[in-house]
Amino acid sequence: MNVTEQDYFLKSYDFELPENQIAQCPAVQRHGSRLMVLDRNTGESDIRSFTDIVDLLPEGTLLVANNSKVIPARIFGKKPTGGRVEFLLLTPLPLIKPEQDAQGRIKAVVRGLLRASKGPKTGEKILFESGMELTVLGKGDFGLSDVELSWTGDLKTIFETWGNIPLPPYIRRAADETDSDRYQTLYACDEKAGSVAAPTAGLHFSEEINRKLRSKGIERAEVTLYVGYGTFSPVRAEDIRNHEMHREYIEIPDETASAILKAKAEGRPVVAVGTTSARTLEGAFQQTGQVCEFRGETDIFIYPGFEFKVVDRMLTNFHLPESSLIIMISALAGRDNVLRAYKKAVENGFRFFSYGDSMYIK
What we know:
The protein is of the alpha/beta class. It has helices spanning 53-56, 155-162, 177-182, 207-215, 254-265, 275-288, 324-333, 335-347, and strands at 34-38, 45-49, 62-66, 69-70, 74-78, 84-89, 99-100, 106-116, 125-127, 133-139, 144-151, 193-195, 219-225, 248-252, 270-273, 294-298, 313-317, 358-361.
């Protein structure tokens, strides 16, 4: 794919997006979303219903989806003076290393975002209704902090009982009961709880669509990427090659690696369900030079000029202007093709981002 110098500058990924097209609520159910089909070779696009995905995917396709689960990671506490504090847990639950102290309380050092009218100082304690306590150990940029949590019982239960679903910052409303169900894929694994955002391309799959896909012989394999707050961080560098990507923990089980190798050997397409699945597959390959079982972190930044080694096609939602996500799909389909398709999406009233419509890049 031809890459020009313009592809490396942030403004090249800008477009006009009406505020009312940033999806604010889960009104579009799993079976009711729209799908744009983009041919990355010709640049041609077509508007369909997501239910058509069953017919659009070739027989034998291997779908690779992110099975991480969103937890109610946003929890509210108080300073000893009574000031309200919001804490967003960013360390995935399975990666937390707890230790028990002499008083029988469980402690662990984690990372998160702290927000308050007056930011808590290093050494300050925050108290929560659940009985959990937080001590600020160190503060970074944009509210990011290292803290020590202290609690009794089960930490996951504490957040599930007292926490709130951390909706993306562009959704300007409080989370409600519909989000607890709708902001979760059908295949989210309880053992993989720890994401602060859903791998949203997977939200479109209903039980009925999954059944039809299985009947057609379309396989699904799973990877894990714990989606962090960095997925919402804007690209600020004028030259995108200078953008510093956030790190995220990823896992590729042996059975998924084997399924990918088999599909590749048989000439069947590997379709990433979402940018997080693509990031996992390509990030692991970047570090190992092969498709294999993998557990570790990736900070891969995929932009035009990148050569995909694992992913052949992608299912993804529509992303915000000048984001790392629109830059990633431009690496797969070409910036001009993507922006033409996005222009068509805006003109046809497509809904953007987490609760929005979807795109199939073939």
